[in-house]
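Quick start: load a record and inspect it. Here is Puromycin-sensitive aminopeptidase:
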Amino acid sequence: MAPSPSATADQFRGQARLPQFAAPRRYELRLRPDLVACTFSGAASVRVDVSAPTRFLVLNAADLAVDRASIRFQGLAPTEVTMFDEDEILVLEFDGELPHGEGVLTMNFNGTLNDQMRGFYRSKYAYKGETKNMAVTQFEAVDARRCFPCWDEPAFKAKFKLTLEVPSELVALSNMPVANETIAGPIKTIHYEESPLMSTYLVAIVVGLFDYVEGVTSEGNKVRVYTQVGKSNQGKFALDVGVKSLNFYKEYFDTPYPLPKLDMVAISDFAAGAMENYGLVTYREVTLLFDEQSSSASTKQNVFYHNSEKYLATYFLPFMFHFVNSDALLVYYHTPSIL
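Running the structure step on this input writes:
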């Protein structure tokens, strides 16, 4: 229901869900992480569909400094900008009723690469005797709002077009393949292809120094396993499981893998066992890497199971998450026959 003409931003406090009178359709995000200062800056341009009369736009934001002077919707600046920290919402109030239909909301913001393994955070790793930071995202269930202002509920699906500005020597990954890349001195700007419709919690970014091993499915989908430099051999088992599993699932479900690539990344500091981000699955090292010389048979089985489950998720998360978790066990017993 749309708010009344006399309503104020306070009406949105304490609400369990975001209002439904406006919804995102497409995000254009530009992010620049600083891995030395452990901060990031960003800009968002969001195509928003206003479906009912309103003077407000209400979205999620947490642990972000939003540049209030930069906020515009269809060229209009809000008369009031209110952040309710306890509810993790940003309320934009405009002088008059917003135009019905689609419009573009723009704003700039910045934040901290935290050490809490949620949102946009930093993970430490060793490289040539030094400790370095990588930038990692973990947005499930509702932590995309700690990286960029957004409608951070699974029902609000949209397309995403990401651009990253990172040090030129680093690897920068996201859900989709690179569309184009330019290098200007120490910084490279990477534009990624637009994603399919997906929820905010499936958006993923990883920036750091990595080695990788690569394979290709029977349908031509590129599969890579990214590891810390010097550990790529430990990714070969997961790669083999990945390529063969995607081939198997394509035949088993008579459904092609819906994305052009699948990247798997081993992260040193990672709260979950693994996270099925669309096209960029992130793992704890122990659930992705297998050392033929020192790892146990149970480790190999663990790597296999986590991979089987997450590959299923990339197929079916847009439709039914509970199917993924339950059916993973069934397919888990079928898949070994292909290895």
